[in-house]
Amino acid sequence: MQIEIDPLSDVALYQQLRDRVVEGIAGGELRVGDQLAPVRTLAAQFGINIATVGKAYDLLRSEGLVRTNRTSGSVVARAPHDDAEGTGPAALEGVGAWDGSARDAWVRRLATVLAEGVAQGEQDAAITATVDATLHAFSASRQHANDERKSQGGSADEH
């Protein structure tokens, strides 16, 4: 997965890195068990401090999306089901359900993002349509990624 960040953005670099990984998971570019680039590699690639990349990976770990091992590095620990029936692997073995505190934090962030739209004068129907379109885009991206894996000789179940 190609990660891009904007050093001139108001959004902190670690947050941009975290967000791109989350989007990659949601869009099917990153699947359960996929290896993430090593911290030092990403830091060198973007010319940023390794602590910045480490902070992004720490956040992903705290959210249960990434698992890190000294020998195997950081891998995607949780992802959407990768098939229409919702039976494809959604988490590494031993990774439990999305815990309440992580989900609560997500709900708070979502509420803030929705509040921004409301505060800017966006109509409720337009916000709902945007949310639906975004979810549809992630679903279509996952389907496309699965189709590409199948056309390259792999099954959607392989990691």
Q: What do you see in this structure?
A:
Helix content is 52%, strand content 5%. By secondary structure, the chain is mainly alpha-helical. It has a two-stranded antiparallel sheet with strand order 1-2. Strand 1 (66-69) and strand 2 form a beta hairpin. The protein is globular.
Task: Give the averaged pLDDT, no decimals.
Answer: 87
| Uncertain stretches of 5 or more adjacent residues | none
Overall body shape: globular
Largest sheet: 2 strands, antiparallel
Structural class: mainly alpha
Terminus-to-terminus distance: 14 Å
How many beta strands in the DSSP annotation?
2
Strand order of the largest sheet: 1-2
Share of helix, binned: 40-55%
User: Percent of residues in beta strands?
Assistant: 5-15%
Q: Secondary-structure element order, as H and E? A: HHHEEHH
Enumerate how many helices there are, as a single number.
5
Radius of gyration: 17 Å
Task: Please give the structural blueprint.
Layout: H1 13-26, H2 39-46, H3 50-62, E1 66-69, E2 73-76, H4 100-119, H5 124-151
Antiparallel strand pairs: 1-2
